[in-house]
Amino acid sequence: MVLDFSDAEIKVINEVFHDIEADAYDCSHDEIFVGEKKTAQDIFSRFFAGAAKQVILDIGSGTGFVPSTLNACRPTGSALICGDISLQMLKKSREKQVKGFSTGISFVKLDADYLPFASRSFDAIILFSVLHHLPDYGRSLQEASRVLKEGGRLFILHEPNKRFSQNGLLVAFSRLVGYARGLAAEVRPRQGKKGRSIYDRFRAAIQTRLSLPKTLTDAEIQALVDIHSPTAAGKLDKGRGFLVENLVSGLNNECIVEYQLTKNFFCKADDSQGLLRLFASLFSLLFPADGYIMHLVLKKQNRVAGVGK
Hints:
Rossmann fold, 17% strand, alpha/beta
């Protein structure tokens, strides 16, 4: 089936899907809550520990991975605003009662393309595993840059790196080990309330908002939700994912790369153990910019001086 939906429809699809997935999100995303916790802690500690108090915006905050991870190294007196298009995701985050910000944590439903904040309002903006959900991610990043102060940092974390699929050796090795089943992340049924799969519940719920074909497969639904993910539809799509240079140029080069890390050199396979760990260490030396998952920190330059503060 040819899937052709407008940006507005993709946003509605994401809102409805994540409202339904909220209860099961944490337990169905070990790649984040287990696999990325230490990496996120290291990055946050590097840039926030010991810093002056800041006003921080977490776009696509979901069920609260960023605030709970950032909490240990938060700058004293800092404020955090958690924003998401899904009210149910924000509700789950609030229920976790993440504490530690002396000026508190606030929650707001928002559209990343139209942020309800004045220009240059934030010292730091974090997008963790959200960019691949945003249909017009270029506009979303420009909005983030608009509300970011000069000298502030834009964190783009846990996103699919297009350089991986352009590296024939890494693709071949990933297929060889078979962990990703030909680099296809099998779309496994995610269970929600009363044992019904999240996809079945989505098919029923979306009809009140959009007229979608009821014959959409689980893989097709996931490909719409993860609109820029190379593996969302169950096979590697080399046209999806992100390149650092495109993200920077899309911001009119007003941000510079301050930190970059890629990991997962066998696509979605766990390369932290045994022989794969040895190969991953080798590949990280040979192809440091080509891991499947990308973490990026950009610093907004001072318009007057032309350099970051």
